[in-house]
Amino acid sequence: MRLSYRTPIALFALVSSALLTAPALAGEWQLNMTEGVTALSQEVFSLHMLIFWICCVIGVVVFGAMFISMYLHRKSRGAVADNFHESTVLEIIWTIIPFAILIGMAIPATKTLVKIYDTDNPDVEVLVTGYQWKWKYEYPEEGVSFFSSLSTPKDEIYGDADKGPHYLLEVDEPLIIPAGKKVRFLVTAADVIHSWWVPDLAVKRDAIPGYINEAWTRVEEPGLYRGQCAELCGKDHGFMPIEVKVVSQEEFDEWIAERQARAAEIAEAAKQTLEFDELYAQGEQVYQQFCATCHQPEGQGAGIFPAIAGSPIATGPVADHLNRVINGGGAMPAFGEQLTPVQTAAVVTFQRNAFGNNMGDLVQPIDVVSFEQGQ
Amino acid sequence: MAHGPAKGLSRWLFTTNHKDIGTMYLWFSFLMFFVGGMFALVIRAELFQPGLQIVEPEFFNQMTTLHGLIMVFGAVMPAFVGLANWMIPMMVGAPDMALPRMNNWSFWILPFAFTALISTLFMEGGAPNFGWTFYAPLSTTYAPPSVTLFIFSVHIMGASSIMGAINIIATILNMRAPGMTLMKMPLFVWTWLITAYLLIAVMPVLAGVVTMMLMDIHFGTSFFNAAGGGDPVLFQHVFWFFGHPEVYIMILPAFGIVSAIIPTFARKPLFGYSSMVYATASIAFLSFIVWAHHMFTVGMPLASELIFMYATMLIAVPTGVKVFNWVTTMWKGSMTFETPMLFSIAFVILFTIGGFSGLMLAIAPADFQYHDTYFVVAHFHYVLVPGAIFSITAAVYYWLPKWSGRMYDETMGKVHFWIAFIGLNVTFFPMHFSGLAGMPRRIPDYNPLWADWNMISSVGAFLFGAAQVLFLYIVIRTIVSGRPATDQVWEGAEGLEWTVASPAPYHTFSTPPEVR
Amino acid sequence: MADLKAKNTRIVLKLSVLAVLMFAFCLWVMPPLYTLFCEITGLNGKTNSQPYTPVSADVDESRTVTVKFIAIKNTAMPWAFEPREYKLEVHPGQVIETAFLAHNPTDGYMAAQAVPSMAPKNATDYFHKTECFCFNQQVLAPGEAADLGLQFVVDQALPKGVNSITLSYTLFDITDSAQESIEAIRVGSPSPSDPVSVAFSGPTH
């Protein structure tokens, strides 16, 4: 078998044409970076395209020279080797030209970077905290906070149901920010390092335990923008998406007010006494949503995640069980802030009575509140 | 003095012969290449389509971690050391390595390190799952118990590399034949000399960073634990202070190989020999002051961000000089395209593409969009697979006739090249697109938005894997039944290694050769 | 031949010393160097871990800076923890006192360490703590609540562009490694209802 010398040329042509037409084809098979929806993200995009085209031009020149040489200077074509092997002039030229090109790239890059770092005078502030494996959003000024975790159902992941269009990019509670306002994000983490990334905003900041990092955005158009965690943070790193919902200032204010009211409601709900069946049913729901990932749907556990069935905690004293759910321990994260007292009471009741753990006891929301207050 | 090798297993266990040890390094790295490749195929099989089909996320993370560690420390680095063992004494006209006994140790501790590392897969809690960059606190406070064994094996690998590097430096500086001045040495020797210094400078830093982890985990210190006054970001600084030179450790010897092969098949001397040496040295120097470009998103102050961005961009200059020199070497030559030349040309093209994406990644504001996406995965695979793997493959085809005394089958070599070349591009080129379109790296499952590119990548990966099986077959067939090779082997080849018989006798240059 | 052997031994020694030096550099020089570098440049936004003694008493009334306080709990930290005021308007040079409220709801003694961090990072050098609960470990008895005091001055030389400073404290549970101080408190404080705060003995308390 003898392959023609044209093969590499054809292949190169194919690869480079794919490269060159990349932006044009975007949409069908998305090839390129998103332009995003903020002035800054568009600036980042044009910077990206600028460098890309410069690289293409250099590539055409260098590879072009190489392929011409491979065509002309073949032994099979009767080429006789020259013997030159030094030229100080050439060496100086191809040191200086790239240097000049680099300076041309550095100037716009520096300008954009300075803008990215200008986080002063925001209209709204959001504290973003990364947890294994969810995000917590807090509006310190407004006193609103909530967790935001993956809402894609298990059976979509395991192929038992069709995958929706926003598969793995959808959450139960999106972050909500007002349109046209400068929003400053303070990014941190509560366990390992995460990274908060929304491509449409061109914001990516590492969330590091013990430290706050800053980023900012100003989105003019209301809409829904999606992103993901961008730093390996353990088992479910691929399953902690981000959804940012940009709404008008009025809607934002309404939402904040509603949130503040809901917090009061939850406190009120914690005072009620519930029937066993009610608690058990709600507990099952909470279990499947929050616990089943690790402890498995049938409570059998997996690997380092212990079984709930016959677990010494679920069949031991109620206080220890509450302590573990609320405060975590070992590999178990703390759920105290994420679950309402009713949910905690329900899931503890469920675990103590499901999977053959027939403890027969029931935990009321008020017990959870008392426990949290340390009585 | 001229006696042959000992018989049986003891030949390999107790050998101090640089050729035997080189052979063992090369076979060991070949084995590790297949192990790391299997792990990569598990990853690609899981990513063939969205959803979790084959492995669970926990195991997926173990696969990405072990794939990275084994390819870097088990496949690429030992392969280069193996080539150094075989070729450096022959290239500088020395009878053997300077420290033959240490040479034996530095090889024989490696199998223990990798047995330990791979055995973690069967430990309770599983193998290391925190990525080959093992960022704290995921790799300390939140690590599986196997992290201790991982640290232990990294220590052994580090010791092996440092011993190997000391040996190489001693050989190059003390063992050269009379007349072989530094500026007459083949470029492969030069690049390895610089690489060896890099190894001695940074492998202890890797050993240091895992030691700090060990102390944090078992002895209550707080190097990386914020609660005790430490800082998880310090881990990243120390790791990348090792990690960036490490990247060049895996590419500088490749520059040397390609600088040997291109002149041979262009039948024309290497263009700009001394500028190649200076470019290599300046790349090595720059590698120490650019580490934080791996950390643009950790929230450094603006000034540090800018300094690291500018320093990183500067690397393009010496790297460009090298590429221009290779192209000019080909210019007005009389080229033929045997398998080593094909791999070397592919090296120049694909490595340059990897360099372009590297330049894009150097631009900090744009890096906020690229960081930790498949664009980065595409970038470093374009640098490492055509860079390290293709150059090692080219070296094997180029020198195998000298080592074994037998010629490989040219047609099969070319078939191997084309399958590998196509497989590589089909695997890694689409990753640029999925990365730009927003796919983060190290995830076991993803939105269907990126499904098409991932499916193509997975097909390419299996093709690339198949090419390597063919490679193994070609190598074995050559050794067993290739037709005898001439001493010169390649028409245009120059250098001391071509003045000895094929196969190279067990002892070469017992009396130093004459170097003009 | 003997000459070569000596040369080889010399080079092995030299290179081994280099390797050992690099290892020592990594273990004993890099961490303190990094800390020093951070203190000079504010690289990681960590504020000083030592009390500051003010140099000038002049208050710059013409300028107002907003200081915001954020409380973050590391996972598995069961305490309640929040700033007394979310934000304060201060003049540079003014000595300000505030506090974070902490409550240990568990039925055991617990120790915590607060880790400070500041944004924007270039303000770090201009924010001086004269007293801070983060300088020491904090121990709380079961069910105990305490005001953790903080006293600070914003430097008059704060860069003009900075109008707002955010100071965060992340609270880590260090009960396991702080058994000694816990024991000391337990013995010294028979009544768990007294607020306890190890080594926090500033004039404000």
Query: What oligomeric state is this?
Result: heterotrimer
User: Number of folding domains of chain C?
Assistant: 2
If you average the pLDDT of chain C, what whole number results?
Answer: 80
Described by strand count, sense and barrel closure, the largest sheet of chain A is: 5 strands, mixed
Low-confidence stretches of chain A: 1-9, 20-28
Report the order of strands and helices of chain A: HHHHEEEHEEEEEEEHHHHH
Q: What proportion of the residues of chain A form beta strands (DSSP E)?
A: 15-25%
CATH architecture of the largest domain in chain A: Sandwich
Largest sheet of chain C: 5 strands, mixed
CATH superfamily of the largest domain in chain C: Ctag/Cox11
- CATH-level-2 architecture of the largest domain in chain C: Sandwich
Strand order of the largest sheet of chain A: 3-2-1-5-8
> Greatest contact pair?
A-B, 106 and 102 residues
Percent range of helical residues of chain C: 10-25%
Strand order of the largest sheet of chain C: 3-1-9-5-7
Helix tally of chain A equals 10
Order of helices and strands of chain C: HEEEEEEEEEH
CATH superfamily of the largest domain in chain A: Cupredoxins -  blue copper proteins
CATH topology of the largest domain in chain C: Ctag/Cox11 (Pfam 04442)
